[in-house]
Fold Type I restriction enzyme HsdR N-terminal domain-containing protein.
Amino acid sequence: MIELNLPRIECNIRKKEGKIEIFDVVRKKFIQLTPEEWVRQHMIHFLINEQEYPKSLIKVESGLKYNRLQKRSDILVYSRSATPFLIVECKSYDVKITQATIDQVSVYNKQLGAPYAVVSNGLIHYCCEFDRKTGKMSFINSFPNFD
């Protein structure tokens, strides 16, 4: 895997039945290591270790329904009052972030109602803030502070 535009992480990687797996500290289990999972794990560690988001308030690959379709958000961070705070959509490092990717996280967030969203391929990160009154999204220059 390549080096990302996120801090290096201490991770537990193993090979099992011919597949390489990485330990997910949130789900507390080994997950097959794909390029997208590499980005997701770096983002999880970044949110916990650098941004100081509580690990207990992070959910990985949580389900949601949108127009009768079952979807999954990559990372969902809850506030201390148990409401969605930040949704993160991770893409493989070789996937270009496009308007369609931004639209994807916006669609997911219509159901969740988080004030913040991030889209990342591990190399480029876009942070967004949603105005609940107008429904408009605007880009912000940094990850939101948790508290």
Remarks:
- The mean pLDDT is 89.
- Residues 51 and 145 are 7 Å apart (CA to CA).
